[in-house]
Design goal:
It is a single chain. This protein is mostly helical and 395 residues long. The protein folds into 2 domains: 3-190, MFS general substrate transporter like domains (Growth Hormone, Chain: A, Up-down Bundle); 200-382, Growth Hormone, Chain: A (Up-down Bundle), CATH 1.20.1250. The chain is built from 16 helices and no strands. The longest helix has 38 residues, at 144-181. The model is unreliable at 189-207 and 390-395 (pLDDT under 50).
Length: 395
């Protein structure tokens, strides 16, 4: 990776860590104290968070189109302000209406400032050669929960949940905004990357076959559903297998390192494969682990956590690299927003739906997640490489 690109990856990866830690990973630590002071139930706080995810899904295509035109720097700088505003509104919330309003602003920020926007920003800078950069920022931001959860807990203990929100808002203005402002400007004027001015092959890539796009949208929706469901319910799921409370915590802690290990594997050995092949390998890991856990129970819980985490880590990268490899860089941001719209909606519903399955069927709910993952694998097996696709895309 060239020195200039290394700086971009480090800058954007750090900004992404801040964005994820202060949004996606915030309710897990603050939902209870928020609910207690605002006089609402914890599910109401999570409902506001789910509403933010829905808004982020709807905003994604619009944000992606802006990045296609202007590059990621101005969009991500504006997003830093939106994150700060949403967190400030959360800090002064007085009831359910103001809480939902704050999370609505957070939804706008999440839809224009998390991975999809970062991936589009890198593609706008590097075109076909963005794969290693996409992998790099996911390696850094993969530690968002590792950083975010303890820091939020410390801030809440020291200053209360409102003080924690103010602190995160300040970090977006003092750290996130300068980092995003440090990103290079897109090298080409917007007109030179407009779809109607691309060479014929590139213009065709920007308008992908509907069948392939639909298959990818299904894959992304399924994998985000499973990832979010496991993130929300893994401790309860492991406890249902008979794992001891101490073991549940230790095993759950394996998922994060396994995700990073999967991303390192993609950055090293699997980078020589087309992203479609690495995605197929990754899609097999969750159903393999889920079947083992459903059949054998607690003794293989650690193996399940490792397999699920590694597969999820690689598939996170695939969400950025697969559309690039299959369709090309032209119109990437807008197309990425459209492809991820079903995934964001599935993500919003996952904690509730999988919670119902777990309550009704116990560990047998694993067969549902395994079947969904296998359907994603089947979709990936149906997707074909475009004629003339490079076998080893990216540097």
């Amino acid at each position: 990776m060239q020195p200039g690109r290394t700086r971009v990856v480090a800058t954007l990866g750090t900004a992404q860590t801040l964005a994820w830690a202060s949004s996606y990973y915030l309710p897990a630590m603050l939902a209870r104290p928020m609910a207690g002071e605002l006089g609402v139930s914890e599910p109401t706080v999570f409902a506001a968070f789910s509403a933010a995810l829905v808004i982020s899904a709807l905003v994604g295509p619009y944000s992606g189109r802006r990045i296609d035109r202007w590059g990621g720097r101005p969009v991500l700088m504006a997003t830093s302000g939106l994150f700060a505003l949403g967190l400030a509104l959360m800090a002064v919330a007085t009831g359910p209406l103001s809480l939902f309003a704050a999370w609505a602003v957070m939804g706008l920020a999440m839809g224009s400032g998390l991975y999809e926007a970062a991936f589009a920003s890198l593609v706008r800078l590097y075109g076909h050669e963005a794969r290693s950069a996409i992998t790099g920022i996911t390696l850094i931001a993969g530690f968002a929960s590792t950083v975010g959860w303890p820091l939020t807990a410390v801030l809440e203990q020291a200053f209360g949940w409102r003080g924690a929100c103010w602190a995160w808002a300040g970090l977006h203005l003092l750290i996130g905004l300068p980092l995003n402002a440090w990103l290079p400007r897109a090298a080409l004027p917007a007109s030179s990357v407009a779809i109607d001015q691309q060479p014929p092959a590139e213009a065709d890539a920007a308008d992908p076959p509907l069948r392939t796009a639909a298959l990818l949208a299904w894959v992304f929706a399924v994998t985000w559903f499973i990832s979010t469901a496991m993130a929300a319910h893994l401790p309860a799921l492991l406890a249902a297998t008979g794992a001891a409370p101490g073991a549940v915590i230790a095993i759950g802690a394996l998922v994060g390192p396994a995700q990073v290990a999967g991303r390192l594997l993609e950055f090293g050995l699997l980078r020589r494969l087309h992203p479609l092949y690495s995605a197929r390998i990754a899609a097999l890991l969750h159903p393999l682990g889920a079947a083992m856990l459903a059949l054998l129970g607690a003794p293989v819980a650690a193996a399940f956590a490792l397999l699920h985490g590694a597969g999820n880590g690689i598939l996170t990268i695939a969400k950025g690299t697969l559309p690039l490899a299959l369709f090309g860089p032209a119109g990437y941001g807008h197309r990425q927003g459209l492809l991820m719209l079903p995934a964001r909606l599935a993500q919003a519903l996952a904690p509730w739906l999988f919670g119902l399955l777990l309550a009704g069927f116990g560990t047998a709910a694993l067969w549902f997640s395994a079947a969904l993952a296998l359907s994603a694998l089947a979709a990936l097996l149906v997707v074909r490489l475009p004629a003339g696709a490079r076998r080893h895309p990216g540097p």
